[in-house]
Amino acid sequence: MKRLLFFLLLSTYAQAQLDTLHTLPEFTVKGYESKKKSIITAASIHAIGTAEIQRYALSDPLPLFNAYPGVRLEERSPGSYRLALRGSSLRSPYGVRNVKIYFNGIPLTDANGTSYLNLMDFNTLGQIEIMKGPTGSTFGAGNGGVVQLNTSSTTHGHEIKAGVQLGDYNTLNYSAQYQYGSDQYQITAAYSSRSSDGYRDHSNSKGQNLTLAGSYRPNKKHQLNLSFVYASTDYQTPGGLTLAQMQDNRKASRPATPTLPSSKQQQAGIIQDFLLAGLQHHWDVGSGFTWSNSLFLSSNDLQNPFITSYEFREERTGGYRSVLEKKIKDWTWTLGSEGIFTSSTFDVKQNNLGTPGVQQYFTDLDARQLTHFLQGQYVLLEKTFITAGISYNTQYYHNITAPLDVEGRPGTPWTPRFSILHALTPGKSIYYSFTQGYSPPTAQEMTANYEYNKNLGLAAEKGIGHELGIKARWTRHLQSELSLYHQNIKDALVRMVTEDGGEYFLNTGEIIQRGIEWSNRFNGKLGKNLFLEAYANANFNKYTFADFVNEGVDLKGNKLPGIPDTEIALGIRMNHRSGIFLNSDFGRQSSMFLTNKNEAKTEPFWTSRARIGWQGKISPSLSLQVFGGVDNLLNKEYALGYDFNAVGNRFYNPSPTRNWNGGAYLKFRI
């Protein structure tokens, strides 16, 4: 904490030497379909712009997300991400659950409740918007929050970008991108590839992504947008280790036991092909009306050889989103509807040393998720912003080949939201919000329960959140935000693991999530030649079970596994007029428990990474960036992803020690 305060004092001192031309950007955020500047949006929303995304171009997205309070992106093995927004990762052995993700306004999350964030190419993005907490009033399912991913655009003309990064463990990442912009057209076409042998035994990974995005604006009233993504990935999962195994050999994959083969023997991993296509139409109807409509399709084929099984999964999704907006003086009314429909097959067989064996079970599952919402926004005397909204939601599962039971209604039909923000001055505001949300069991959770116990039903989580916050733009160079929140999650879903490594899920009675989030950002010029950007963020958490009895043990008052009490993120970006730059990020995570019974916990640790290089123009139309970087600069031993409640105490997925990378990035403009 002393170091954090020192950092803030240093930033304040540096403010006196600022060149007033170098200022912090003001982002307009979509939020709850509000489309306002962040300073007058009554929610804790983080907007990550193009410049920040490009800080670690060609690298993984962990520093993008983990720089913000209340946001944690975990990497259990290369290519496997797990995202938590103000919540635990209890439900996610891998992947993203309990969070809604959109790509260019199109749902990336399917009706099964799963989002394949690891398949997206972050090099193509121009803005990432992160909303935390229950968001059911306009976005339907998901108590964790919402993430909006939007591709970048270009000004008039043609632009070609290409980059390559080499690193330890035979890492090779490269990308190429073409963009064109005019008054009527915006076109983006990008391809990227990544491969690595990995730090641990049995942790090879490779993947590729093709992204196409375009817009056509024939006149001022109409705009047509097209989005297309094809992605594939193939990565090995080394598996969790015990503490003793990790201390003996951090690079080892999960060994065999007297009853189970090793991760390597079973060829554990993920092989996946994914396709997403969407079409949007924005219409300025006139008389204060605007109407946006989207149609989308996606396809996912996944193979998952695991220690105890070999799963083949096929998912086909289609859907729509429609939003009608009307502005009347100080009022803005929004009426919308979203529907997502997914048809899936889960074919689970025995795993005979990496070869599919006898079928264990087969399930056809149809899922339907519908949200219809209404929202009103009122501006009082240009200083007070009042928003009230409500949605009606349904989540439906139909099982064709087996009776999967869902207790009661798997959705929470009505989810309201109310917020009020008062602008104290043009750069300072205070707000309060009440939100409600729900998160139904995913298809994977239901099929896991069917395999474990055909009579074990699941109910949807119900979330209620209260938040009080202050936002301040002290000058054009320094801004801060403080938020306090309290969330009650009833029927919270918790992942359990059987003795043979299988999984099933239970509804707890209730969990309580309390937190304080504090963020500070600074941007300015020191002297004549040095530009400085810095951030200092922290969050303080207290997440506990309020009502949960497991195996006859009352866990009331126990802390949730996977949630550290304190997280701190610090970062500095320095750019010299000569073109030399330095980016550095540091994070500290306090200890956290690894089991529901709080029997095991981690040690506190620091993460660190840096990149130094040169960028500049070689000619009027050609720019070059060369860089060298280091991950785990402090050479600490830690894990960026854990297996909670693991049988045999195999919690640990060790992350690499200090490792190096370097590369180059070209940009050609016509």
TrEMBL record:
<keyword id="KW-0813">Transport</keyword>
<feature type="domain" description="TonB-dependent receptor plug">
    <location>
        <begin position="41"/>
        <end position="146"/>
    </location>
</feature>
<comment type="similarity">
    <text>Belongs to the TonB-dependent receptor family.</text>
</comment>
<dbReference type="GO" id="GO:0015344">
    <property type="term" value="F:siderophore uptake transmembrane transporter activity"/>
</dbReference>
<keyword id="KW-0812">Transmembrane</keyword>
<keyword id="KW-0798">TonB box</keyword>
<feature type="signal peptide">
    <location>
        <begin position="1"/>
        <end position="16"/>
    </location>
</feature>
<keyword id="KW-0998">Cell outer membrane</keyword>
<keyword id="KW-1134">Transmembrane beta strand</keyword>
<keyword id="KW-0675">Receptor</keyword>
<dbReference type="Pfam" id="PF00593">
    <property type="entry name" value="TonB_dep_Rec_b-barrel"/>
</dbReference>
<dbReference type="Pfam" id="PF07715">
    <property type="entry name" value="Plug"/>
</dbReference>
<dbReference type="InterPro" id="IPR000531">
    <property type="entry name" value="Beta-barrel_TonB"/>
</dbReference>
<dbReference type="GO" id="GO:0009279">
    <property type="term" value="C:cell outer membrane"/>
</dbReference>
<dbReference type="InterPro" id="IPR039426">
    <property type="entry name" value="TonB-dep_rcpt-like"/>
</dbReference>
<keyword id="KW-0472">Membrane</keyword>
<dbReference type="GO" id="GO:0044718">
    <property type="term" value="P:siderophore transmembrane transport"/>
</dbReference>
<protein>
    <submittedName>
        <fullName>TonB-dependent receptor</fullName>
    </submittedName>
</protein>
<dbReference type="InterPro" id="IPR037066">
    <property type="entry name" value="Plug_dom_sf"/>
</dbReference>
<keyword id="KW-0732">Signal</keyword>
<feature type="domain" description="TonB-dependent receptor-like beta-barrel">
    <location>
        <begin position="221"/>
        <end position="633"/>
    </location>
</feature>
<dbReference type="InterPro" id="IPR012910">
    <property type="entry name" value="Plug_dom"/>
</dbReference>
<dbReference type="InterPro" id="IPR036942">
    <property type="entry name" value="Beta-barrel_TonB_sf"/>
</dbReference>
